[in-house]
Amino acid sequence: RMLAAWPDFLEGFSVGAPEFDRWMAAQRSAIQSRLIDGLEKAASDAARKNYHAAASENLAIALKLDPLQEALHRRLMESLAAQGKSDEALAQYNACRNLLEKELQIEPDAETRALASKIRANRRKAGAEQTKTSRRYPSAKPALVFTFPQGLAGASLGAPDRHGSAEVALR
């Protein structure tokens, strides 16, 4: 999170010398490249350990630094999909597609389009499975609901309502 607010190298500093400005721009680019590499490595390590939320966070920060890196968009899509967030993964694809069109007048490459298609297909498959399950178990309502006075309601029972009672549902 600290990296998201990291300022550019010597941001706002200028001496008015073209040679210095070129050197500063080269340094800024090199630092940004190393930072993105580090974020990608951290995301890979997190994903390998199934910490996909951490991987997504690192990739999102890297994309703020270099939003035109299509491979970063793809990796973030994969990470979101691994968390079961297919809608967010497809929103990321759309953001990538729109950015590439606006900035470079190009479409995402075949690998990115194929990943979006795979995520859509998996979402449809998961939706079909959920429909089958809901047909087998149609009742989503709790079988029993107990209401306790506020003094008896613990954290595991839920937050008290405006009357000081909390509910716990048993299925």
Question: What attributes does this structure have?
Answer:
single chain; two-stranded antiparallel sheet; elongated; 171 residues; mainly alpha
Anisotropy-based shape = elongated
| Whole-number mean pLDDT | 79
Q: How much helix, percentage-wise, in residues? A: 55-70%
**Strand coverage percent:** 5-15%
- Main beta sheet, described? 2 strands, antiparallel
What does the radius of gyration come to? 24 Å
Strand order of the largest sheet: 1-2
Q: Helical segment tally?
A: 5
Order of helix and strand elements from N to C terminus: HHHHHEE
Distance between the termini: 40 Å
**Care to count the β-strands?**
2
Structural class computed from helices and strand pairing = mainly alpha
> Can you tell me the residue ranges where pLDDT is under 50 for at least 5 consecutive residues?
142-148, 151-157, 165-171
Concise summary:
With 171 residues, the protein is mostly helical. The protein has helices at 18-48, 52-65, 70-82, 86-104, 110-136; strands spanning 144-148, 166-170. It contains 5 helices and 2 strands; from the N terminus they run αααααββ.
